[in-house]
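Duplicate of #3305? Posting structure anyway:
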């Protein structure tokens, strides 16, 4: 199982939202086709066909739990990562 698939499964389970590493989630978003741009101190991720813009903030190397929940909701809503 590839690293992105493991992270996607972990993210979708929702049991460890506070333990998702920022660099890993960034890599997953890029793998799912999001493009990254930096505005100020926080990277913004967007994808064609996805209305919402994702803003990731690092908290001691990890993503804030509420942002993990937002990304989970987007992945489920737009059925991302199912066709890889």
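Output from current build:
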């Amino acid at each position: 199982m590839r690293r992105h698939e493991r992270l996607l499964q972990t993210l979708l389970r929702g049991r460890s939202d506070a333990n998702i590493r920022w660099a890993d989630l960034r890599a997953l978003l890029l793998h799912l086709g999001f493009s990254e741009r930096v505005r100020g101190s926080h990277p913004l991720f967007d994808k064609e066909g996805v209305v919402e813009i994702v803003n990731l903030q690092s908290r001691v190397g990890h993503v804030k739990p509420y942002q993990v929940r937002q990304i989970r909701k987007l992945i489920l809503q737009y059925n991302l990562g199912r066709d890889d």
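Confirmed duplicate; merging threads. The chain has one domain: 3-77. The chain has a mean pLDDT of 91.
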